[in-house]
Amino acid sequence: MMSISRPTAIQMAPFSAYLEEELDRRFEIIRWFDLDPAAQQQILSTGDAAIGAIVTNGHVGCPDALIEALPGLKIVAIHGVGFDRVNLDLAKRKGVGVSTTPNVLNEDVADLAVGLVIALLRAVTPADAFVRAGLWERGDFPLARKVTGRRFGIVGLGRIGVEIARRLAAFGPVAYTGSKPKDVPYAFHPDARTLARNSDVLILACPSNEQTRHLVNRDILDALGPQGYVVNIARGAVVDEAALIAALEEGRIAGAALDVFEQEPHVPDALRTSPRVLLTPHIASGTEETRRDMADMVLQNLDAMLAGNALPHALI
């Protein structure tokens, strides 16, 4: 590649105009998502030592091949908190730092989780469509379900899970499951099946890893039962989508609200067309304020790397 005076960074996905402008001030940017396969393969084959950073997000991540191919790589900076699509073991072996943007998105994610609960049980989206279609003049909208008094189960009581619990406690009893009990005023259940059996609404807020992949399967959904609902603001891989679709179609659960999907942005037709499902396009952290804060944290990590300092928000 042509000799350049500034370090090079690979950008794996589009970002806000603010973040992209700031990245351009610091690096020569290679927009990986705009390259055709041949151009991507050339970078992998060349192993350009000038490429010192990869900037990505949680649902795109970074392929192992890039980490393996780039001898000058110092950082994979993730715009988000999900790191399941970055091989931390490989990065550690190669001496590559991995950073995220923790805490600043907790409130937005929790707000959306509660919003999805309310919208799902009160059928807000179908009610909106009912009015827009002029159907109100022909009769009343069907009755929905009450939110207050429901039993809420949270899978994963980390920082985001705690924020969700604090909000939902105003509506009804909250319980949770996780690796161990915590010093919180909510009931602990030892596993997801027991939690589901004792919940009306099951909210997923756990990390995505080998232990949680397809954690919500047919067994968990059957424990939740035909009056139960699933809300997923964690990662798509936590839910076995085939099992979820079957449970919805067979009426073995009442409904689901999903912000994340196994193969996003692809969403199975069976979910897109189901009247029992509320869908949002991975927008849990999608506010102007939080995305600006996340961008600033990405830049803090990159600036630390450029200065030879420790990453302020490092995973490894």
Shape: elongated
* Count of discrete structural domains: 2
- Average pLDDT confidence is 96
Rg estimate, integer Å? 22 Å
Helical run tally: 12
Strand order of the largest sheet: 8-7-6-9-10-11-12
Order of helices and strands: EHEHEHEHEHHEHEEHEHEHEHEH
* Low-confidence residue ranges: none
Beta-strand percentage range: 15-25%
What is this structure's SSE topology?
Blueprint: E1 8-11, H1 17-26, E2 28-31, H2 37-46, E3 51-57, H3 64-69, E4 75-79, H4 88-93, E5 97-99, H5 106-121, H6 124-132, E6 152-155, H7 159-168, E7 174-177, E8 187-188, H8 192-197, E9 201-204, H9 218-224, E10 229-232, H10 241-249, E11 255-258, H11 269-272, E12 277-279, H12 288-307
